[in-house]
Amino acid sequence: MNYKETLNLPRTDFPMKADLPRREPLFLKRWGEMDLYGKIRAQSKARPKFVLHDGPPYANGHIHLGHALNKILKDIIVKSRQMTGYDSPYVPGWDCHGLPIEHQVDKEMKAKGVRLSQVEVRRRCRAYAEKFIDIQRTEFKRLGVLGNWDHPYLTMRNSYVAEILEEYGQFSFSGAIHRSKKPIHWCATCRTALAEAEVEYEDHRTPTIFVKFSLVNPPPQVPELGTYKNVSLVIWTTTPWTLPANLAIAAHPDLEYVAVDTGGEVLVVAADLAPALLSAWGLQGSEILRVKGRALEGAICRHPWLDRDSQVILATYVTLEAGTGLVHIAPGHGQEDYVFGRKYGLAPYSPVDDGGRFTQEVPEFAGQKVWEANPGIIELLKERGRLLAAADTTHSYPHCWRCKQPIIFRATEQWFISMAANDLRQKALAAIDRVTWIPRWGRERIYQMVERRPDWCISRQRAWGVPIVAFHCRACGAVLLTPEILAAIIQRVRLEGADFWFETPASDLLPPGAACACGASDFKKETDILDVWFDSGVSWAAVVEPDPDLTLPADLYLEGSDQHRGWFHSSLLTCVGTRGRAPYKGVLTHGFVVDGDGRKMSKSLGNVIAPQEVMDKYGAEILRLWVAAEDYRDDVRLSPDILKQLADAYRRFRNTARFMLGNLYDFDPQRHWLEPGERSELDRLALSWLAQLLARVKRAYEDYEFHLAFHRLHQFCAVELSAIYLDILKDRLYVSKADSRERRSAQSTLQDLLLGLTLAMAPILSFTADEIWEHIPGTGRPESVHLGAFPVPPPGFPDEALLDKYDFLLKVRGEINRALEEARKEKRLATAQEAAVILRTMDHQLYAKLETQAAELKTLAQVAELQVESQPMGGRETQEISGLHIAIQPAAGEKCVRCWFRYPGVGEDADHPQVCARCRRVLEG
Questions:
Q1: Which of 88, 191, 258, 473 is disulfide-compatible with 82, CB 3.0–4.6 A?
Q2: Model's pTM, two decimal places?
Q3: CATH code: domain of residue 790
Q4: Which tops the pLDDT comparison, 114 or 419?
C-alpha cells in the first residue's frame, strides 16, 4: 500500500514562484476594470476623513527612487488609514510650470536654430508637461499606488491657475505685495531670479583676497587716527567681482580693532585677528591705537581704484571666524549688505546685467562675465598697490538647481511678499507650533527658516508660468491693479487659460476708461511670472479647500526633508497669509535614497538604480517592501545586495501563505470552521499571537513606523508561524483523519491566520495580499483585500494566561531542540520523531510543572516519547532553565512509515505491519 497517498498533503494552485513582473500588471488591469478606487470611496462615505494631501512632483522625466519612496509611503498611509476606519481619499498632483521644462524646450529649439514667441514656448512647455504626466502616472500606478489617477490636480490647469491668481489678489489687496529693488539669488545662465528652494550648495573654487581701503577722513570719535600717514582699513572677500559695487565697510560695534604701524603703513583690523594676519602677510608692526568698532563709524575710505568713497558702517553680523573683522559691503550683491546698507541710506547698486556681465558703469570690465573678471580685478588691485594678499579657496557656494552653474546675488526690480506686512512672520511662527512635526526636529528647522528669512521674492523672468497681473503707468511708473480688473482677468483664465496675457496689449486687457492716479491712461503690462513655489504652495486653496471630499487643514503633508524650505514652507506662508492658519495638521518627512555605502546616487559613480529596472527584475512589491523595511526618517539605502535580501524576505511571506493555503484545499469555512473556544490549546495560542501582532502592526501604521510593521509581520511569519506553530501543526494536518475535529481546528486557525495576516500586510504588499485573498477559501468577502477592514481579534484574545503558560513551555522546547540537534550531529538519531526525551530535575516545583505539562511538551517538541524524572542529574545541562537536564536516546519500537514517529506497536498488525496504532485507526476510519 502507498501510505503517502493516505496523507493530507498540501495542495494549492497558489504558485510558489511569484513572477511579480508578469503578474502585477494583471492586478493593475483588474483593479482598473473593477474601479477599485471608486469602490473604496463609495464604501467610505460616512466615515471620518483622513486627508493626506499630495505634494506635486515635477512633470519632467521618468520617476526615480526618491519618487518611488515618496509615493509608496503615501500609499501605505492612505491604505492603512482606509482599512482602520477612515475615508482617506488620495488626489495625486503635478507641478507643471517653471524653469526645468522651459529649459528643455529652449534646448530643443536652440538645437534646431528656432526662435519662438512666448505663447509658442508656453504651448510647447504644456505639451512637454502633458507627456511626462502621462509617463509618470503610468509609472506611479505600476508601483501599486491607488488614487484618483483619472482626475489629478495640475498646476497648469485653467481652474488651478485661476485659484493661484485669486490668492495672489488676496495678498496684493491686503498690502502684502510690493515691488522693489533688492539683492536676490540670480542665475545668469537661466537669466531669472531663483527661490531659496531652487538653490543647491556645492563646492566652488574662488579667489580669496585681502584688500586695503585708504582712510580719507578719520571717524568723528577717533580723530587722532587722521594724524597718521598711509592708514588703510583691510577687508577680505571671496568675491572680487563684487568690489566694483562696494559702497561701505562694516565693523562690529562691540569688537575691538587695532591700528598697527607696519613701518610706513598703518593697517586697521580686528584686534583678536591681528597677530595671525600680520604673520600670514609676512609683516611686523606695533599697535598704536585700540578702539571698539562703534568708534570707527563714520570714517571715510577711498575705493581701491574707482573715484568713489566708502563709508564705515556698523553691522552686528560681522564675526571673527574668517577675514579681518572688517567686511566689504556691496548692498546690491548681498542680503545682509542690503539690510545694513539701508540703515545708512545706501542704494542697492549692482552694475551687472541679466547675463551676469558688467555694464558700462564698470568701464574696465564692461561686457565681461563676473567670474571671468576676477583675475583682472586682482591684477588691477596689485597695480594700484591695494592688494595685500591673494590665494584660492574651495568653499560651499550656491548653484542653480537646473543648470548647475554658480549663481550670483544681484539687486534687481522684483515683486515680493512682505514678511512684516500683516504680521506674516509672527503668525507663521505661531502656526508652526500648532502643527505636529515628524520627526520633531522638523519644527526647529522650519521655525528657524521662517524666523530669519527675507521677504519672499515671487517674480521670475520667464515665460512658462502664471503671469503676475499688474499694469505699469508709462507716465509715472505707478502700478495699477484693482479687484475688478483682476476678477475680469481671472474669469477669462478660467475659460481659456493664461496664454492670452502674453499676446494681448495692455489696452485690450484693461476696462475702458482705466486711468492712473496721475491722470495718464497709457499702461504697459507686467512681464514677470509668479514663482512656481507660489503655484504649488496654494494647492491647499486650489485642490483641498474647494473639494467636499477633502478637508482643510489636511491631516498630513509628507515629502522629503528638503521641503522644509520648499513646499512645506510656501504652503505655510500662503495659507497663513490669507487664512490665518497652517494648511496641515501634521508634517512628515523622509530622507533621501543613497547607495549601500551611504553615498548619493549619481551617474558618475555608476550607482544609480532606476525603479523601472527593479520592477522589471523583481517586481514593484520588492520596492514596496524596501520602503516599509527601512526607517525612512533617515536616508534610505538601496543596492543590489539589499534587493536580494528583500527578495529573500518576500519569499518568507509568500511561502508561509502558500503553506497555509495548501492545507486548506478541502476546507469550507461555512461547514468546517470551529469557534475559537472549540479549538485546541495550541490553536488558541496561535490566535493569541495573531491578536498581539495585529495590535502592534496597527499601532505601527498609526505612528507611521512602517519598519516596525514590516519587522513584526516578517518575524511572525518566520518565527511564530514557520518555526513554531506550522512546524508543529504538520503532523496534525497531514496525518490526522481529513475531517477529524483536531484537523478542522487547525484549519480553522489557518483560515483566521491567513485572513488576519493578509489584511495586515495589504498596505505594504498590496499585490501579493490581493493574490492571497483570491485563494483563501470561502465566500462573502469583498472582491479585493483593499476593500476589507483591518482585522479585529475574536473576544478573549490575546489570552494572557495561555501566553504565560507557553512562554515557559516554548523555552523548554528550545532547550529540547538544542539537545536534539546535538544528538543529530553525533549521529545518535536522524530525526526528532525517533527520539525519546528525558527531562531530569531535582527541583520539586519544576518537576511538578513539567510533569503536568508533559503532553504539551511532547507535542511542541514533536518527539516519539517524553518523560519527566526526578532523579540525579544526567544528560545535557540547559542554558535558560536552572536545574534542568535533558537526555536524548532512541525511542523504543520501529519507525512508522506513514507518520515517521517511532512507536513500540509498529509491526503488530498483520494488515498494516509498517504503521503505528494511531495511523492504523485513521486508515480504518
A1: 88
A2: 0.89
A3: 1.10.730.20
A4: 419
